[in-house]
């Protein structure tokens, strides 16, 4: 199967209104910039996005929020996006907040075919409302269900034409888990090489999980919050 597509616009073909998307990244690190821009420029709406956060007001998933394309966010952090906060408080945006480790594991479980698991995080808080609680080793645990998506959109440092991916340092973050959990996974990479050129021992995501891949361009790689001593 030819997995290589020419650009982000071609990669997102088949995404329809109301679909659920997983979008890799942590803050602004490792986000699929080209794909997010293509989504922002599309006519799509009523999307559910699973992502650690929603970027900032004018970058990352914040671009989709600003254009009213996201109906629901499933995420763990909202602190750097004022538009996210405004839509949440006004009731315009449905939000499911999840402890960060639980979010990562729900994505990983979805890719591994594990339907649910028990975790202690969130017990005794609003996170626990409506969830089954069982005691293990004298500690209450919540039943959490795995997450999957119609499309997973991830960003990698290097990839080959078979879809094998290598992430760079902390830009791995949620990308590796989400790449496994999408019915269709789109990978944008900084460098696309012919099959066989990547060291098999260095591959983080095997190509079997990736259906579409393209080489991105014009990456900004913004700093979310610059801190100087």
TrEMBL record:
Sequence intervals crossing the membrane: none
Top-level lineage group: Bacteria
Keywords associated with the record: Transferase
PROSITE patterns from the UniProt entry: COA_TRANSF_1
One Pfam entry name: CoA_trans
GO MF entry, a single one: CoA-transferase activity
PANTHER family per UniProt: ACETATE COA-TRANSFERASE SUBUNIT ALPHA, KETOACID-COENZYME A TRANSFERASE
Membership in a protein family: Belongs to the 3-oxoacid CoA-transferase subunit A family.
NCBIfam families: pcaI_scoA_fam
Protein name (Swiss-Prot/TrEMBL): 3-oxoacid CoA-transferase, A subunit
Source organism phylogeny: Bacteria, Pseudomonadati, Bacteroidota, Bacteroidia, Bacteroidales
């Amino acid at each position: 199967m030819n997995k290589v597509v020419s650009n982000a616009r071609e990669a997102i073909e088949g995404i329809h209104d109301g679909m659920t998307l997983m979008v890799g990244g942590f803050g602004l690190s490792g986000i699929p910039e080209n794909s997010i821009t293509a989504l922002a420029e599309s006519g799509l709406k009523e999307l559910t996005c699973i992502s650690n956060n929603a970027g900032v007001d004018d970058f990352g998933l914040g671009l989709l929020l600003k254009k009213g394309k996201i109906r629901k966010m499933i995420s763990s952090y909202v602190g750097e996006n004022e538009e996210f906060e405004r839509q949440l408080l006004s009731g315009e945006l449905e939000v499911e907040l999840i402890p960060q480790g639980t979010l990562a594991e729900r994505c990983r479980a979805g890719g591994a075919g594990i339907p649910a698991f028990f975790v202690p995080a969130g017990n005794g808080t609003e996170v626990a409302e409506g969830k089954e609680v069982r005691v293990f080793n004298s500690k209450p645990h919540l039943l959490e269900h795995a997450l999957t998506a119609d499309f997973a959109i991830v960003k990698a440092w290097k990839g080959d034409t078979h879809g094998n991916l290598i992430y760079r340092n902390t830009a791995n973050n949620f990308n590796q888990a989400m790449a496994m959990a999408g019915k269709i996974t789109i990978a944008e990479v900084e460098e696309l090489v012919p099959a066989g050129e990547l060291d098999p021992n260095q591959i983080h995501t095997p190509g079997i999980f990736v259906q579409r891949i393209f080489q991105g361009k014009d990456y900004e790689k913004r700093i979310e919050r610059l801190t100087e001593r």
